[in-house]
Structure formats: C-alpha cells, structure tokens
Specification:
There is one protein chain. With 316 residues, the chain is α/β, with parallel strands linked by helices. It contains nine helices and 16 strands. The two termini are 35 Å apart. Bound molecules: adenosine monophosphate (AMP) and magnesium ion (MG). Magnesium ion binds next to loops.
Length: 316
Amino acid sequence: MQNIYSNIINFNSNNLQKIIRILKKGGIIGLPTETVYGLAGSAYSAKAINRIYKVKNRPNKNPLIIHYYNLKQAEKDVILNEKFYKIYNKLSPGPITYIVKKKIKTNICPKACSKLKTVGIRFPKNKIIRQILKTIKFPLAMPSANKSSSISSVSPIDVSEEFKNKVIVVNGGYSKIGIESTVINLVGKISILRPGKITPNQLEKILKHKINFAMSSKILRSPGLLKKHYSPNIPILLNQKKCPKKHAFITFGKKYPVTRNSFNLSRKSNLNEAAKNLYKFFRIIKNQKYKKIYISPIPNKGIGYAINDRIIRAAK
Ligand code: AMP
Ligand code: MG
C-alpha cells in the first residue's frame, strides 16, 4: 500500500526549485498559509485551474481566491480603490480577502473567477507561501486544500488524507489561525461575505463607517440560508450543555469535565486557540468514527463569530 504521507515535502532550497517547476508547468500543490492549507496553481494557467476544480470536486460557480506577493503584482490584474488601500495598509499581508474589480485585460484564467467581473484577492502572511510567491512572480489561485464542502486542512497530513497521492504538500506545520480568511466585498455596497480572524469592528475602525454582513452570513438571524460547508459529514448538535458518552463533545472553557469523548477547544476560554483547534478536532472525531458531535455554546464575539459561522454551516 502506498504511504499516504510520502507526498509531504519540507521547505528547503532544493524543494523550492521543485515547487516552482510544478507551478510553472500548470501543476498544483498543497501549500501552507496562516489561515488554512491551500491547493495552489497558477492563476494564469487554465490547466492548473481546471485541475484544482477537478481534484476538489468544486462547483464551477464557486470562484477561487487569487494570492499575490505584493501590490505591484495585483495591480496588473485588478482595479483597486481608496477603501482597499486603507485596509491593505493596515491589515495585509494577513488573513483578509478583498473582492475587487477585475481589469478587462488580465491574464487571470476566467474560470478561476467563475467568469465574474470581480476577483477575490489576498496577500498571505505565511513565510513559506510568501517566499514562493516572491520567486514565481505570478499569482496563485488557491482554495482551501480539501474536497468541496468537507473540512478544511490545517496540517500537511490533513491535505494528504484529502487528496491521497494526487498532490505534493509542503510541510508548514499546523496553520497558525486555523480558519479561513475574512472576505470583504469592496465592489458596490461594502459588506462582509465571510467572517474570519479580522472582525467587522477592526474594519469599521479603518473605514470609519458601519459594515454589515451580506445576507448569507447573518448567521444568527437566518441560519436556514446557509449552505453546507466545512463539514465532517456527521450530525452535529449545537448549544449543548452535556453529551452522552458514546458521542463526541466539543466544549469551550474550563467548566466542562475532561472525559475520553470530550474535545476542549480552549480550557482558557481563548477564542484564538479555539479557532486553531476547530478543524483539527472535527477531523480527529471523524477519523475516530464517532456518529454524532455535540457542541457547547461558544461566545459570539471576535473570531468566535467566525467559529460559530463554520459550526452552523458544518451542522447543515
Ligand atoms: P475557499 O473555498 O476556501 O477558497 O473560499 C473562497 C471564498 O471566497 C468563497 O466563499 C468564495 O465565494 C469567495 N470568493 C472568491 N472570489 C470571489 C468573487 N469574485 N466574488 C465573490 N466571492 C468570491
Ligand atoms: Mg474552502
């Protein structure tokens, strides 16, 4: 049997050359970022983009985020406005994706943006991905490295489990943040399309006006609108105070007992630690073949809002 971990490579100068060769030829590769692992291919290569959609089994209508090293690279492909620069100067590189207008003449493969006139762009902070982007000088289309609608990967082993030996993965250890970037729409009415580590409050302070969530992210008012995503494909019960022994219990805070079936996101009630553990626990629970997941309440503030967003979608 093929060792599924044999496709994990370390990041060194030899392997950097190998990574560049793969990407230049329109190949795809699993790469670490500070949010979650990505499945990367050249944004300018139709071959790479087709392969990303195929390997992930991703619906064509779901566009990919394009990752850049710096502004100079991005300015070739997209039209940036004043609000973009204000946020960029404070928060990039980092865990925020901007939806901006695409230039009419650009090398970005139309399929990567699902043929939309807008593009989601991000400037990741992780050192490995930055070194790669700096060297290749073209942007990388990079959705999360998981099968469509499944749990995002937060370690190279997760990526290997998702795609077996179909892709090489660069080892960057555990993802620092552990959930996907905040997505802000800067075309037309400004809104947050996906909550993340960067909160509306931070963005409101920079732009000096209120920013709302787009419809599909109003998690508490209209959970029925959310589509299934980020899911371990096991029934999930939210807001539980206790849990039968045979089921997995994801908890938050020190008041919950330590038992064989309990997975505490953060005994110290630290929401950043909880975000980092969420997908890791989903995957462990799935691999241990639990039939149901109970989840205790998680405070809906800061990154907690993003955690609740992911949990509610996973429970769909
Ligand atoms: P992921 O599946 O982790 O790659 O998530 C990418 C997210 O960015 C999805 O929620 C997409 O819908 C969103 N996104 C990317 N590009 C665009 C775009 N041009 N317009 C709107 N949303 C986008
Ligand atoms: Mg994803």
